[in-house]
């Protein structure tokens, strides 16, 4: 009885207070505006940003866009055009070169995901060495921190050219982060509010979900025909109204900070010394990846963008498809991309190339992973045979494969290319047969003019 009376008195006291008598809580802090970006650039190596600085110069100097940059690696691989420093030491230098280059453009918000520079053309190998999950978590965190309207990144597609696996990995991770940063269940620890933001032991991060609005890609393919008309195109020969010099000249100045890199920083330094900028006058070609606002494919990057945030847009996600009958397809990065584009609503990327293509050096081996699918209820013997132009030889893969019912048999095929590649573009293939019937074939265009990265 006594306890009940005390409880009633306590309730009465609370109910009797007016709002004016209650302590007033401070406003909830807004996201830190110093980190807000209009454009977030996601690339793999220091100097990768130079692929689009002819456009960024316009965006920064004349449109006053805020730009932030994520590098997947510190660029700890490759040669050093300045001295003997290599590997981790080279990465330490290249981080500073990148920070100085971007600071010259007024871009101070620059982060590195910590992946190792992984030379090769296979995106899956780079995702493996980068520790894909950790790199993605950091990319999602930085999208939530920078709250970009637009993300610009490398094209996630296997093309002939330099086609660095790291470039493609940055494009894959940027695409995944674009689609995940607005999902409150993805890396939820990043968005849980701290108990007391001014105290210690606040182990969650207090960010907010963020849905970017547009995603664009760029590529360093050896040919650009398939990129034309697939997105905005920016001339670099226009003169910056605010700076009074062409955008390519501003791009050359930015590139000249990357002095450890013979094919960018040193080239820019020589161009500036000679006053010859012909290598800098190409337009910046972008591919429209996806847009969550109404806009046209080749319109300006900021076309259709309003000031307000947009709600989370879920993606289709992966859907398993049943294999019917017997079939053969390219495996590895090619089968990954086939599923990745569908899962992320990027069907436009599936039609950029009509035939798959690679770039290798004359005499180099060509690895083509194949997948033999058996959607029947019986074991099947599948015979793989190469279809090759003169000068090519089979190193591995030509055999009869027992493929279990309902199973997929992965085969690593290896072809040796001729040592003097002439003509530059050649077509090779594999044919699969079973029970005297052709069940499928693979065709690959090979650019033997290359060199550069191993395939
Ligand atoms: Zn690169």
Notes on the structure:
With 455 residues, the chain is of the alpha/beta class. 25% of the residues lie in helices and 22% in strands. The protein has ten helices and 17 strands. It has a six-stranded mixed beta sheet with strand order 3-2-1-4-5-8, sandwiched between helices. Strands 10-17-16-12-14 form a five-stranded mixed beta sheet, with no helix packed on it. The chain has a four-stranded antiparallel beta sheet with strand order 9-11-15-13. α2 crosses α7, α4 (123-129) crosses α6 and α5 packs across α6 (165-180). The longest helix is centred in the N-terminal third of the chain and has 18 residues, at 87-104. The model has no long low-confidence stretch (mean pLDDT 94). Residues 44-45, 48, 164, 167 line the site of zinc ion. Zinc ion is lined by residues 44-45, 48, 164, 167.
Stretches where pLDDT is under 50 for at least 5 consecutive residues are none
Q: Helix amount, in percent?
A: 25-40%
DSSP summary: helix tally: 10
| Strand order within the widest beta sheet | 3-2-1-4-5-8
Could you tell me the mean pLDDT? 94
Quaternary structure annotation: single chain
What is the alpha-carbon Rg in Å?
Answer: 27 Å
Number of strands: 17
Helix vs. strand class: alpha/beta
N-to-C order of helices and strands: HEHEHEHHEHEEHHEEEHHEEEEEEEE
Name the ligand types: zinc ion
Percentage beta strand: 15-25%
> What characteristic shape results from the CA principal axes?
globular
Major sheet size, sense and barrel closure: 6 strands, mixed
Spatial separation of the terminal alpha carbons: 84 Å
């Amino acid at each position: 009885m006594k306890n009940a009376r005390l409880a009633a008195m306590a309730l009465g006291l609370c109910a009797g207070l007016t709002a004016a008598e209650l302590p007033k809580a401070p406003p909830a802090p807004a996201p830190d505006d110093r980190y807000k970006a209009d454009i977030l650039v996601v690339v793999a190596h220091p100097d990768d940003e130079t692929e689009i600085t002819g456009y960024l110069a316009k965006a920064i100097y004349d449109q006053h866009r805020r730009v932030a940059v994520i590098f997947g690696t510190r660029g700890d691989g490759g040669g050093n055009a300045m001295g003997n420093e290599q590997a981790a030491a080279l990465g330490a230098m290249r981080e500073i070169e990148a920070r100085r280059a971007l600071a010259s453009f007024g871009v101070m918000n620059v982060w590195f995901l910590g992946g190792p520079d992984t030379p090769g053309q296979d995106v899956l190998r780079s995702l493996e060495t980068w520790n894909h999950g950790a790199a993605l978590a950091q990319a999602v965190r930085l999208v939530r921190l920078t709250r970009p309207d637009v993300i610009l990144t490398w094209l996630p597609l296997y093309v002939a050219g330099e086609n660095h696996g790291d470039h493609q990995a940055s494009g894959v991770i940027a695409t995944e982060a674009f689609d995940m940063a607005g999902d409150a269940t993805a890396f939820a620890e990043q968005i849980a509010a701290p108990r007391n933001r001014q105290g210690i032991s606040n182990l969650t991060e207090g960010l907010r979900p963020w849905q970017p609005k547009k995603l664009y890609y760029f590529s360093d393919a050896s040919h650009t025909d398939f990129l034309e008309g697939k997105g905005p195109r920016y001339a670099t020969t226009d003169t910056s109204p605010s700076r009074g010099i062409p955008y390519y000249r501003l791009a050359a100045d930015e590139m000249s900070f990357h002095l450890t890199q013979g094919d960018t920083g040193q080239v820019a330094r020589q161009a500036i010394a000679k006053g010859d900028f012909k290598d800098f006058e190409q337009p910046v070609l972008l591919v429209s990846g996806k847009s969550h606002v109404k806009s046209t494919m080749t319109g300006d990057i900021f076309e259709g963008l309003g000031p307000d945030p947009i709600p989370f847009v879920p993606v289709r996600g992966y859907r398993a498809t049943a294999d019917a009958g017997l079939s053969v397809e390219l495996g590895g990065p090619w089968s990954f991309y086939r599923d990745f584009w569908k899962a992320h609503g990027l069907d436009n990327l599936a039609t950029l190339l009509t035939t798959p293509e690679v770039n290798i050096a004359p005499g180099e081996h060509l690895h083509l992973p194949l997948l033999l699918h058996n959607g029947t209820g019986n074991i099947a013997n599948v015979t793989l045979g190469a279809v090759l132009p003169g000068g090519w030889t089979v190193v591995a893969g030509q055999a009869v494969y027992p493929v279990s019912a309902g199973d997929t048999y992965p085969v690593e095929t290896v072809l040796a290319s001729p040592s003097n590649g002439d003509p530059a573009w050649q077509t090779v293939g594999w044919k699969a047969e079973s029970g005297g019937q052709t069940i499928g074939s693979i065709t690959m265009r090979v650019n033997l003019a290359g060199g550069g990265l191993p395939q």
